[in-house]
């Protein structure tokens, strides 16, 4: 594809067609079985894990079929010109794609209708060339080949006969199995219909003519080939020798300039093609009508979404042209984005191993007649979208987000379809109303699926009942038995004119429909990404430095972009902006600072500017209101104008300087063309070849470059490709090369690509998460949303599935990873049973200072699998594998578990081929190392996703034995609460400090309420802390207490609310011991600080400045909490009641200058001051300066007294400090604190209970405290139930 210098006269980049190709049987080499077909059979055998000798037998399966059904080798018989330097001719690839099944033979009894299909060759740099092929049948004149076929038949029949005689079982069965398509029931029938007799039958063989073009002018090429074919089969020779027409299209027909139409001449009539203008959607000539008829609108939108999310898409149909039409149709609709991965719309049988590629791909596979989807073995299906075109059926991956505004979108498209008379549900479910019937007739004329000539026959029922299985079977049977069920054809001449007329009209309708449907799709993206430009990060000063540092640079501010989007769009958009096609789109945007814009980008940007002119809405205000496409009429008009008013006409075909007497016309046979006249074009004698000015030429070249047909010149292109192929593993398989070495090389590229992708993904997950956690610690700003984290984890799950399905020997189940895990589990359990030896569990318990702690949780891959297997909510293997990955990631054991799984080398050898990623040792080690880096951060990706599962928890209460008895005689109880719910009150068994309980997932744990009923002799209890552990994820929470429970001791509390903190595992080596109690807190815990009065031993009292700072920080943290996106806010309870929470900060304020020396040896608490204040408010009448202030003060006093009394009368045995905590929480929730503080600061009891220098007696401090608390007025604060349980205000 690379060439240098400007194109010369008549140079190919300006030519309509690059090559004309003829493929068929090579009479000299005779009948050669198609090695590729045999290779394919061998690959299949390998895929099913058969041994090589069975594979040898399999390779002979081709010979079990009747000779007419076998595949034979085709050859490229001729191609003109010999070569073009900027588009070298790839003989093997063209041969393979022109005749993907090789040669096929027919007799006069078989259907010999010509067939059209197209193909595409995508080069490694992503540029494309299109091929259009007409396959027809030509009588075999070589005596040698006819004799060979007869001999093959005699051998075949003898074999069949002996196998039938030998089998004594029911002849029905044996015959059905031995006959190729097994419907015939007797030997006689077998020999009569499935045979070839040289004396009686005429033998025909397939041949094809093909045009290879730089742009997909499908309709024009189809017409040209059909006219050429007609010239060969008609009774009259064509007006000029065929060489004239072929020479004309190769050398004298230019590409129409953008925005213009062109007329050129076929054998019998002119052909018109048109090309969209610079600001229109790029050229697409494949009829979208057919795509919608084949798939139905709903299915199409689902497949389209899968393509956008870069899943693996496999199209499946008997008809090559359908595969091509659907693939091209769907990729056309992606505008302004472009598919960046493997793209092979027609996958030749010999390349089936490409389905093993662990990368996103869009491929088309031809289905064999009568084969069932269930028989199709695909290497991996976890992320596969399977599209059975012929049966109107799709299989989707398990989890994927819906396209935004899907319902309104479908509604808008169906309105366009209905205007053109196309049922949105597709044509297989067509109702028999007259319009739709008529539509079918018309589509039949235009589709021209089976007939080479443009048919003008009446509608036949078979076409209508295509979807009907019974009819299809009957037809197949009829075909085999030689009974034709073809349409009754009328002579072409009678109705040719009508046919032609409706054909042109239909073509125009198809063009209009195409462009209108594409406008609707393009409009969705224009609306969705109207302000994408604001989020593009333009960091590099010049192209050179950008290309060099591309890998490290962020090119799009994803978090800000997502935070601007409407909520319903997020699931889709957060996945989509991670795709390669989006990354390339943004790269193109950045490169456009230094270069001419990519054409797709240019058109898209101009549309966005248009929107902004019409819509004066602020671009940042996103709305999920659906806005329909308003440009449908204009788009259809511009195409109509071009087709009605032709801009350019090419030179007529003319006589060439040919040798007389060669290429004699013989009806039904394609003549041997004179290669010397077709090898080169005319010298500079035509108008369009020397396009005048250099600027025009430069513009053309740039435009053609961008349309994948130009010249890529220097190192920059290499850089560009490298930059663009980041994260891609393999752009495009090379079709022509199939040696084992090449297959190995390809697999090696896959392995390198997977490793690179793993490195990028883990790095991205770390950076995002570290950023997030750095914010929690107060460094910088957050840049990840819970949603984005989920997307990244889902893509990690997908990557692991792809790695595990690379190089599988035999596929079992839809998830390769889960199937590997199951086999590992089976082996391990067998060994356990046979050994019956106790597994080393590690030290059972570790004594803490108090002597009681949680038992160590065993690290076990099998145990984690069992947890997942016990989850009845998950129904599929793919789901189980994902759950297991999430669980391992949350436990920080993913790398360790996978290492253990792969350490069983015998199993790995049994399951994987030598080239598989998992058997490349160095890469595997690096891969596990990358995954190990994820242990640096905390994920809750299992707990937060599986919210309804039952989870076993274990709790242990740790008393301070030195100062109190370990066990209380009263009846203790506990209630554990988390973000998702609570356990309710649970009695702790007497004389026990440890208990296990099971309940629905509580999420991250937040509080524990602990208490007792104060009965028995030893009722007083000093609790150090409570530990609670999730027995599935191993997360352990510590709830520090450090206070007494009991009447007449401390603040007289019989129950306390404890605030939890997650205990982090200390280091990687200690992974196995991560659940032990950590050493005593270094800083004083919440609880120790709670009653400064009760622990007289404290020497360091904070000063006034520190206390005020503490209040500011506590309030600031709450404000920050509400400014984060909802999904990543964390726990508000900790910000209120935790170590540096608001309650603790206000306690410091109230303790400052508090006369707390024990009065008559009795502790005095803040709550005593609060109660004195209430007593004062209830008895006195306040005197205010004016009426209004007085009313306000009165209502504040009233609510204050009401709240305090409600707390005092609550049916809970909460101590005085606990009551103060509840009061602060309720005051914060109801925005009353700022009204209560001044009341307390003014009331007379303050002078008795506080010293002169106390903060509460300093008017300035009180005013600043009120201002700080008022900043919380705007927030809707919802308290956790456990904090205010039983308090009724």
UniProtKB/TrEMBL annotation:
UniProt GO molecular function = guanyl-nucleotide exchange factor activity; small GTPase binding
Q: Where is this region: Disordered?
A: 681-700, 829-848
InterPro entries linked to this entry: cDENN_dom, dDENN_dom, DEN5A/B, DENN_C, PLAT/LH2_dom, PLAT/LH2_dom_sf, PLAT_RAB6IP1, RUN1_DENND5B
Enumerate the transmembrane spans.
none
* Biased composition annotated in UniProt, kind: Polar residues: 681-695
PLAT domain sequence ranges:
951-1059
- Name the domain of life: Eukaryota
What keywords tag this UniProt record? Answer: Guanine-nucleotide releasing factor, Membrane, Phosphoprotein, Repeat
Q: What is this protein called?
A: DENN domain-containing protein 5B isoform X1
Q: Which organism is it from?
A: Lepidothrix coronata (blue-crowned manakin)
């Amino acid at each position: 594809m690379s060439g240098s210098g400007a194109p010369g006269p008549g140079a190919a980049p300006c030519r309509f067609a690059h090559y004309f190709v003829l493929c068929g049987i090579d009479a000299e080499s005779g009948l050669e079985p198609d090695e590729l077909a045999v290779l394919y059979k061998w690959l299949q055998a390998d895929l099913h894990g058969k041994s090589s000798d069975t594979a040898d037998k399999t390779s002979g399966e081709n010979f079990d079929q009747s000779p007419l059904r076998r595949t034979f080798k085709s050859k490229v018989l001729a191609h003109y010109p010999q070569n073009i330097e900027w588009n070298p001719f790839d003989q093997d690839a063209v041969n393979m794609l022109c005749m993907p099944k090789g040669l096929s033979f027919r007799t006069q009894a078989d259907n010999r209708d010509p067939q059209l299909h197209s193909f595409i060759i995508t080069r490694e740099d992503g540029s494309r060339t299109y091929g259009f092929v007409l396959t027809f049948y030509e009588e075999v004149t070589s005596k040698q080949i006819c004799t060979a076929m007869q001999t093959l038949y005699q051998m075949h029949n003898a074999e069949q006969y002996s196998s039938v005689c030998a089998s004594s079982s029911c002849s029905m069965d044996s015959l059905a199995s031995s006959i190729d398509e097994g419907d015939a029931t007797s030997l006689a029938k077998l020999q009569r219909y499935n045979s070839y007799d040289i004396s009686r039958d005429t033998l025909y063989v397939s041949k094809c003519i093909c045009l290879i073009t730089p742009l997909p002018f499908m309709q024009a090429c189809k017409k040209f080939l059909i006219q050429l074919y007609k010239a060969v089969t008609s009774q009259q020779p064509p007006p000029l020798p065929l060489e004239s027409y072929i020479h004309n299209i190769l050398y004298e027909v230019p590409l129409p300039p953008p925005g213009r139409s062109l007329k050129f001449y076929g054998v019998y009539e002119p052909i018109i093609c048109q090309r969209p203008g610079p600001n229109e959607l790029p050229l697409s000539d494949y009829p979208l009508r057919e795509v919608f008829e084949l798939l139905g609108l709903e299915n199409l939108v689902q497949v389209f979404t899968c393509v956008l999310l870069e899943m693996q898409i496999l199209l499946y149909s008997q008809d090559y042209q359908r595969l091509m039409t659907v693939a091209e149709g769907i990729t056309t609709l992606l505008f302004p984005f472009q598919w960046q991965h493997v793209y092979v719309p027609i996958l030749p049988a010999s390349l089936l191993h490409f389905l093993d590629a662990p990368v996103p791909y869009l491929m088309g596979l031809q289905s064999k007649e009568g084969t069932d989807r269930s028989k199709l073995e695909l290497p991996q299906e976890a992320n596969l979208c399977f599209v059975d075109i012929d049966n109107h059926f799709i299989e989707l991956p398990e989890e994927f987000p819906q396209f935004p505004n899907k319902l309104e979108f479908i509604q808008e498209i169906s309105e366009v379809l209905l205007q053109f008379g196309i049922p949105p549900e597709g044509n297989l479910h067509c109702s028999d109303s007259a319009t739709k019937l008529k539509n079918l007739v018309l589509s039949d004329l235009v589709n021209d699926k089976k007939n080479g000539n443009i048919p003008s026959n009446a509608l036949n029922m078979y076409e209508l009942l295509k979807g009907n299985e019974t009819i299809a079977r009957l037809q197949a049977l009829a075909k085999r038995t030689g009974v034709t069920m073809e349409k009754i054809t009328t002579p072409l001449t009678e109705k040719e004119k009508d046919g032609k007329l409706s054909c042109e009209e239909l073509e125009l309708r198809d063009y209009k429909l195409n462009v209108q449907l594409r406008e609707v799709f393009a409009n969705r993206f224009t609306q969705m990404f109207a302000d994408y430009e604001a989020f593009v990060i333009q960091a590099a000063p010049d192209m050179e430095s950008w290309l060099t540092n591309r890998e490290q640079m962020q090119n799009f501010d994803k978090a800000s972009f997502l935070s601007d989007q409407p909520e319903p769009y997020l699931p889709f958009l957060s996945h989509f902006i991670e795709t390669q096609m989006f990354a390339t789109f943004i790269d193109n945007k950045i490169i456009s600072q230094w270069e001419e814009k990519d054409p797709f980008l240019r058109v898209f940007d101009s549309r966005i500017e248009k929107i902004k002119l019409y819509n004066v809405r602020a671009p940042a205000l996103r709305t999920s209101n659906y806005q329909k496409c308003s440009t449908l009429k204009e788009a259809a008009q511009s195409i109509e104008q071009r087709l009605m008013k032709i801009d350019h006409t090419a030179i007529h075909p003319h006589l060439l300087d040919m040798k007389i007497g060669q290429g004699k016309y013989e009806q039904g046979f394609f003549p041997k063309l004179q290669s010397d006249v077709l090898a080169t074009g005319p010298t500079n004698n035509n108008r369009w070849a020397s396009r005048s000015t250099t600027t025009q030429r430069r513009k053309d070249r740039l435009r053609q470059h961008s349309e994948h047909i130009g010249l890529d010149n220097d190192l920059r292109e290499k850089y560009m490709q490298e930059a663009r192929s980041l994260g891609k593993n393999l752009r495009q398989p090379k079709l022509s090369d199939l040696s084992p070495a090449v297959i190995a090389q390809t697999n090696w590229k896959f392995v390198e690509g997977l490793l690179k992708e793993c490195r990028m993904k883990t790095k991205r997950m770390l950076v995002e998460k570290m950023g997030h956690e750095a914010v929690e610690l107060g460094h910088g700003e957050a840049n990840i949303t819970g949603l984005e984290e989920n997307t990244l984890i889902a893509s990690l799950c997908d990557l692991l599935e792809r790695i595990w399905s690379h190089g599988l020997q035999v596929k079992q189940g839809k998830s390769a990873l889960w199937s590997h895990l199951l086999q590992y589990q089976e082996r391990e359990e067998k060994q356990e049973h046979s050994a019956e030896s106790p597994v080393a569990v590690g030290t059972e318990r570790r004594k803490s200072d108090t002597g009681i702690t949680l038992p160590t949780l065993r690290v076990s891959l099998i145990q984690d699998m069992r947890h997942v297997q016990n989850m009845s909510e998950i129904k599929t293997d793919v789901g189980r594998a994902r759950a297991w990955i999430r669980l391992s990631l949350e436990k920080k054991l993913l790398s360790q578990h996978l290492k253990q799984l792969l350490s069983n080398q015998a199993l790995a050898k049994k399951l994987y081929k030598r080239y598989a990623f998992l058997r490349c040792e160095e890469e595997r080690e690096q891969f596990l190392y990358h995954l190990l880096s994820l242990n640096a951060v905390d994920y809750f990706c299992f707990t937060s996703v599986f919210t309804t599962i039952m989870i076993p928890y274990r709790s242990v209460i740790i008393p301070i034995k030195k100062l109190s008895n370990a066990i209380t005689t009263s009846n203790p109880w506990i209630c554990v609460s988390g973000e998702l719910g609570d356990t309710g009150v649970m009695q702790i068994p007497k004389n026990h400090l440890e208990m296990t309980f099971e309940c629905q997932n509580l999420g991250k744990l937040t509080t524990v309420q602990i208490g007792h009923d104060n009965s028995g002799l030893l009722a007083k209890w000093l609790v150090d802390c409570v530990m609670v552990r999730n027995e599935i994820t191993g997360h352990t929470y510590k709830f520090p207490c450090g206070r007494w429970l009991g009447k007449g001791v401390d603040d007289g509390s019989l129950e306390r609310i404890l605030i939890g903190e997650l205990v982090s595992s200390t280091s990687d080596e200690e992974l196995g011991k991560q659940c032990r109690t950590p050493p005593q807190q270094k800083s004083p815990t919440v609880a120790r600080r709670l009653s400064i009065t009760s622990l007289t031993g404290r020497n360091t009292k904070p000063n006034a400045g520190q206390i005020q700072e503490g209040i500011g920080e506590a309030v600031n943290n709450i404000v920050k909490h509400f400014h984060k996106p909802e999904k990543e806010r964390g726990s508000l309870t900790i910000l209120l009641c935790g170590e540096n929470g608001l309650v603790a900060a206000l306690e410091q304020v109230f303790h400052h200058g508090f006369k707390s020396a024990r009065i008559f040896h009795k502790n005095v608490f803040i709550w005593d001051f609060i109660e004195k204040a209430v007593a004062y408010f209830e008895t006195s009448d306040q005197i205010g300066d004016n009426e209004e202030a007085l009313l306000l003060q009165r209502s504040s006093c009233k609510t204050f007294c009401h709240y305090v009394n409600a707390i005092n009368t609550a049916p809970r045995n909460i101590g005085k400090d606990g009551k103060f905590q509840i009061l602060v929480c309720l005051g914060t929730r109801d925005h009353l604190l700022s009204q209560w503080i001044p009341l307390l600061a003014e009331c007379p009891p303050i002078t008795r209970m506080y010293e002169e220098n106390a903060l509460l007696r300093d008017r300035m401090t009180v005013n600043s405290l009120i201002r700080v608390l008022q900043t919380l007025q705007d927030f809707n604060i919802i308290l956790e139930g456990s904090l205010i349980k039983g308090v009724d205000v």
